[in-house]
Amino acid sequence: MGSWGALGPALLSLAGVALGAGGSLFGQYLVSRAGARQFEAQASAAHRAEVKSAVLKFLGVAAQVEKAALAGSRVAGAAADAELGRLVDDLWLAQAEIDLAARGESLRGAAYRYAAPLAEAARDGVSDGSALRGPQARFFDAAYDDMWPGRQRETGGSAAPR
Length: 162
Description:
This protein has about 160 residues and is mainly alpha-helical. The chain contains four helices and two strands. It has helices at about 1-70, 80-100, 105-125, 135-145, and strands at about 150-155, 160. It is rod-shaped.
């Protein structure tokens, strides 16, 4: 019994140190996981903001190109052609911004597949823009998927996990 009387407090102290060290390491692990999640959320929000800015710029230029293309058959002249050429150049620059900002190939491809018929309509002139609605809708879907991967759009406007 004498040996336990001297050895017991030393073993309990050693066990306490081991438990304290283990608890400290576990706490550091939890803090680093929370920090990683916070960084991931901030990076995702920054990406969404960058893509949103590029998408809005692209859509603004696309609307101007479509409007000019629809009016192109009624308005002719060197000044109108020069303005339309500038708008088409701006459209391709805005599409290149999406290429740089997009996370996936889906949005890049959808932007190109929307810009190409727009540029063609600007060059040839159109009387009806309904042929552009399909590529436009696919572009919107791809933009949503790039900004919020894994979420499905609903008709009510809210997003739910897939």
